[in-house]
Specification:
heterotrimer; A alpha/beta; B alpha/beta; C alpha/beta; B: alpha/beta; 7-stranded mixed sheet; two-stranded antiparallel ribbon; 36% helix; C: globular
Chain lengths: 351, 244, 178
């Protein structure tokens, strides 16, 4: 299929339809509103429905219903709206329901601003709502990957009966790039027996529950589910980790700047490498096993003031190398700055 | 007269003595049999006492989040248009925490049906003041009785939604056989409209909560008759008729 | 050019965002890596709007443009804001129908063209940006003029809009700097 020009937000919306989704409920919030706008006319063309709800709280609970009934349902939001969805997400995890939520990150906390940022890493990878859970998080770095990952997100959600998050950001959501759209897939709403559809006489009624005290095996099930996801679903892309002195660690928009920095540094004889996280949870610990043992340290590059990935890198490397962070919640890290910071780290490590 | 009970409802429930959930369940079961939709009903309950019903019904069910059964039931109906999708909730869920959801289901005229059991208290958590607690009614959070100057006046759904463009709005009671029969008529009409995709239908039923009212089952029914109905009139408020 | 960075700016409603998309589309169909990025948020019709376009033989990293090879400025405010951000030796296209002549930097190529007047005279009042694209193709070497003109037509045709006057405007823009 030929490439078409599409905004990240629109490409992800179109790709969701092509992955068989026919239900979306959401609320306008910059910088992801194009998803709702696009679907409001596009979804009816393919026989689906969109509801613009009164809040993200209502929207996520409407999705809970659609997912309970077996549909491939999804929504999208940003920062403040994502916070409002945490109630629903916590329930959806508890009910073992598959669905997909796209968070097109903006600056925060609070109202923050509408510019690109990556401050929701902790919220997305640690749970975000009340209780004892995590969710699979996929982080695209361009428009094509946004379109590709949404289909994977639905597949993973159904494989593990668990919600999956897409961690996009304002830059990737707003940018237009050439994209090859995936082919249309059908989704059979009756594919899974869990889905409520009306109980035939004499059958055992289906019930989508979110309470834990009924089944004493449930904790074992949960432990196994999270362990299996951690073992099987780590995704990443590595560049030059076999000989790098400093390995950059980044995802999304920041990882593009890191790629540029790695190329520019290599041209100058500076040995930088990159681990680009594609799953944020499960964190790709296995990527760090491939790094050469003489690496001097790791530099996380992210649009965050506090450097949210750094702790996960420390855990993945058992704190055996220095880990630093570079970035700002408001400004995209520049490749010059990344190289400069990496050189500083090299100097310190060699002293 | 042949007396039979609908097979879709169980009678060994665990509600408090004098609770009317059993009565309402029987009405739902009878109506489903009469409409031939027993195998098509999906009920989304709230988290409170009503959630226990999932063990007493032979319907497919979802236990929603507190105050959110209406949007959840809408989500079900959007993707399974051949099913009936009922949101089952109490006054606290529909008129306190879920007021935005109730209002906007009505504003959008969502293709969904809501059944609100109004007993004028938060029952599951032990009898706190709700939007429909009567003035002067003592609760664990208004120990001297609800005061207009503190908690405002009771909320009336027929005043809030009465002029809205929705398919059906009615309030019934269960304080007598006659009242139950009338309530069944309202409920059945709502289910029929819902079956025909006519728009948002809300039926409120005045129910007793002897446990939190501190009254016997019999006195609770008497209270509904003498105090609650004068405050919350029963009847049909909106009956739009036909598909819009 | 292996890597070209472009800013298109003007009033919202002047078609600046579309101008950028036309350039991006022409480059994409020429098998280049492209990236288009809008200023977004508070600007609606009548306010200032701008977008960035990047064209490259290699993967593109940032969506943002600090210094541009080419700036298309369709109103006064855009000239003021973006002239300083043209790279030395770069190009600035000014819509002289709406922007009074001023003294420009002497280390850049400045092309002033009454694009709105030309579009209006061609009975294609929304064709201001197409006039400028004609001038751009003629002067910068970024695209072959014939290729870009056809690409513009196919861009609008894909949106179900066939406007033969675009080609007229484009040619007039190109001829203006003969």
């Amino acid at each position: 299929m030929a490439k078409v020009l599409m905004k990240g937000n629109e490409a992800i919306a179109e790709a969701a339809l092509r992955a068989g989704s026919r239900f979306y409920s959401g609320y306008p919030i910059t910088p992801q509103t194009e998803i709702l706008e696009y679907l409001s006319w596009r979804m009816p063309e393919v026989g689906g429905e969109v509801v613009q709800t009164e809040s993200e709280l209502s929207g996520i609970n409407m999705l809970l219903g659609a997912a309970s009934a077996g549909a491939r349902a999804f929504t999208s939001t940003s920062g403040p709206g994502f916070s409002l969805m945490q109630e629903g997400l916590s329930y959806i995890v508890a009910a073992d329901l598959p669905l997909v939520v796209i968070n097109v990150m903006r600056e925060g906390s609070g109202l923050g601003n509408i510019g690109a940022s990556q401050g929701d890493y902790w919220q997305m990878t640690r749970g975000g709502g009340h209780g004892d859970y995590r969710m699979i998080v996929l982080a695209p770095a361009n428009v094509q990957e946004s379109a590709n990952l949404i289909s994977d997100a639905f597949d993973l959600a159904e494989k593990y009966m668990h919600p999956v998050l897409i961690a996009s950001d304002a830059a990737i959501g707003q940018m237009v790039e050439g994209v090859e759209l995936p082919e249309f897939k059908d989704h059979d709403i009756n594919k899974f027996d869990f889905a409520v559809r009306g109980c035939k006489k004499g059958d055992r009624p289906r019930s989508i529950q979110n309470i834990y005290f009924l089944d004493d095996q449930y904790e074992d099930h949960l432990r196994e589910k999270y362990a299996t996801i951690t073992k099987n679903e780590q995704r990443w892309e590595s560049l030059y980790v076999d000989d790098a002195d400093i390995v950059l660690v980044a995802y999304g928009i920041s990882s593009r700047m890191c790629k540029e920095a790695v190329r520019a540094a290599r041209d100058q004889g500076i040995k930088l490498g990159l681990i680009r996280l594609i799953t944020l949870w499960p964190f790709p610990e296995n990527a760090f096993k491939e790094v050469n043992p003489n690496v001097l340290g790791y530099l996380t590059v992210e649009m965050s003031t506090l450097g949210q990935i750094a702790d996960d890198v420390r855990l993945a490397t058992q704190c055996n190398k220095p880990v630093s962070s570079f970035g700002s919640m408001m400004a995209l890290p520049e490749s010059d700055g990344i190289i400069e910071k990496a050189l500083e780290m090299m100097k310190e490590a060699r002293q | 007269m042949k007396c039979s009970v609908p097979a879709s409802v169980k009678y060994d429930h665990t509600f408090c003595q004098g609770c009317a959930q059993g009565i309402v369940n029987r009405l739902i079961g009878e109506i489903m049999e009469e409409l031939g939709t027993t195998e098509k009903l999906i009920v989304t309950t709230d988290v409170a006492c009503g959630a226990m019903n999932v063990d007493f019904w032979d319907f497919d069910t979802i236990v929603g989040a507190h105050g959110r059964p209406i949007p959840t039931a809408t989500g079900v109906r959007k993707v399974r248009k051949d099913c009936l999708s009922l949101a089952h909730l109490g006054d606290g869920a529909a008129y306190n925490i879920g007021m935005a959801e109730t209002m906007h289901a009505a504003i959008r005229d969502d293709d969904v049906m809501a059944l609100v059991l109004n007993n004028c208290v938060f029952a599951m958590t032990g009898g706190q003041t709700s939007a429909t607690t009567m003035l002067g009614q003592r609760t664990t959070t208004s120990v001297k009785g609800r005061k207009k100057s503190v908690e405002g006046s009771p909320f009336h759904v027929e005043k809030a939604l009465g002029d809205m463009d929705i398919a059906y709005l009615a309030r019934g009671s269960v304080d007598s056989v006659a009242a139950i029969r009338k309530t069944k008529k309202y409920l059945k009409k709502a289910f029929e409209k819902h079956k025909n995709h006519e728009g948002f239908c809300l039926v409120e039923i005045l129910t007793p909560c002897p446990t939190n009212w501190g009254l016997s089952p019999v006195d609770s029914m008497k209270r509904i008759r003498e105090q609650v109905i004068p405050e919350f009139p029963v009847g049909e408020f909106i009956d739009r008729g036909g598909n819009e | 050019m292996a890597k070209t960075e472009i800013i298109c700016a003007g009033f919202g409603g002047q078609g600046v965002l579309v101008t950028g998309l036309i350039i991006a589309n022409a480059a994409m169909e020429d098998d280049k890596e492209i990236l288009w990025y809008p200023s977004y948020g508070v600007e609606m019709r009548g306010g200032t709007a701008n977008c960035n376009v990047k064209i490259s033989d290699e993967e593109i990293a940032s969506p943002f443009v600090k210094e541009a090879d080419i700036v298309i400025a369709l109103n006064e405010a855009s000239v003021t804001k973006f002239e300083p951000r043209v790279k030395p030796g770069g190009y600035l296209f000014v819509n002289s129908s709406t922007v009074k002549h001023r003294d420009y930097r002497d280390d850049i190529h400045v092309y002033e063209i009454p694009a709105s007047d030309i579009a209006y005279e061609s009975e294609n009042p929304r064709g201001t940006n197409v006039v400028v694209l004609g001038a751009l193709a003629k002067t910068t070497g970024l695209f072959d003029p014939d290729y870009l003109r056809e690409s513009i037509d196919s861009f609008f045709l894909k949106k179900g809009k066939n406007n033969p006057k675009n080609a007229v405007c484009f040619n007039k823009g190109a001829e203006y700097f003969d």
